[in-house]
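I had to read the description of the data format several times before I understood it. The format is easy to grasp once an entry is in front of the reader. For illustration, here is how one protein appears when written out as sequence plus structure tokens:
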Amino acid sequence: MSADEIPDPVAKLDAEQLLLEVNERSGAGLTFVGRAAAGEVGAGFVRWPDGRDGVLTRGFGSLDDLRRTARVLEAARSHGLPIPQYQLLTEVPDGVGVVQERLPGRPPEVIDRALLESMIALTDRFAGLAADLPVPSMYLLESGPGFCLHESLLRYDDRTRRLLDWVRAVGRDEPSGMTGDDLVHLDFHTGNVLVDDAGELTGIVDWDGIGRGDRRFGLVTLRFDAHVRLPGTDLTWFDELLENVLSPAVLRLYWAHMSLRLVDWSIRHHTPADTTDWLDFAEPRMT
């Protein structure tokens, strides 16, 4: 890659190839059911020989890291949270094959204030459940592992470079990271929950991004999601909520991370119009 090239996008998951690797190394005898329609990177639906349904993804990090995640999620399940059980972890050439329980429900078809408020309330149940996990980096001073890449913003245009300068300034300030012992879902948005026919939450999925810190970080993630899921909707109530529950410095920290994450991702995976939209959304809090 030359100095002026935008970093490559993240490759989509080849779920059938991953399934072959998992079966070869584990002898699990899983069969392929289909590809999950949602998700930026992808997942596959699989079935165990006894008829149980599972979801296949590629986990990154070491096998020990994923085992620790499985233990923490199991503890959260014991507290009544609707979280899938990790049923199988198998090392494969490019990471770890993860088979999770397939929870009941489906992605929500209607995104509205009631759903957002249900998700906001659910985060309170994450309190104090992650003492054994590491605190995740905000990646404000260095690129993340496949996301939050600084190079995209540096090479795109003057506007993204200004955003990157601000992100790095936030990273040099205090606080520079999350604190606390809460369970943190780092991608807490409406595409990662399941609902029943009545619209009640039945599951929280996609725990690839997990850490120990401040459960309220998920509110900022959800606010960014609401910007694209509910275009043109007055979300002043949500903005006021963030300002009431987070100190200005902490909100600034979380906003900088999400701005970096979404602008980088849009540059590499979406359209220039998407990048402009995220910049328009992020910039008013660049203080």
